[in-house]
Design goal:
alpha+beta, seven-stranded mixed beta sheet, PH-domain like, about 120 residues, DUF1508 domain-containing protein
Length: about 120
């Protein structure tokens, strides 16, 4: 089962990623000013996963990626994949496991290792 992981960017904004059961990032959200916005977006994804559209594209370097969209809003952008089959497997994993996925919050501790 995958997981939604909320973290803080260097500019003090928040983002979340959806990771596969093996820990590999499948997609990354845009930046949000408040952590609550991330949590609301994750709950929206979990509640309405069947409403999202996955727009597949090819980058200039030849790799494949998708944008997860609802109406005209980009909700997340995927990592780069080497083949269309791997891209489709990433989309399938989102659809199959996102509803029961855990939400992990890594925003509380800025530094895990002390000096």
């Amino acid at each position: 089962m995958g997981a939604f992981v909320i973290s803080k960017r260097f500019d003090d904004r928040y983002k979340f990623v959806f990771t596969s059961r093996k820990g590999k990032t499948i997609f990354t959200s845009p930046s949000y000013e408040l952590k609550m916005e991330c949590e609301e977006c994750i709950e929206e994804i979990k509640a309405n996963i069947e409403k999202y559209i996955y727009v597949k594209s090819r980058a200039a370097n030849g790799k494949y990626f998708f944008k997860m969209m609802l109406e005209d809003n980009v909700i997340a952008s995927s990592r780069r994949y080497t083949t269309p089959l791997l891209l489709q497997k990433g989309i399938d994993e989102i659809i199959r496991t996102s509803v029961q996925s855990d939400v992990l919050d890594f925003t509380i501790n800025d530094f895990v290792f002390l000096d």
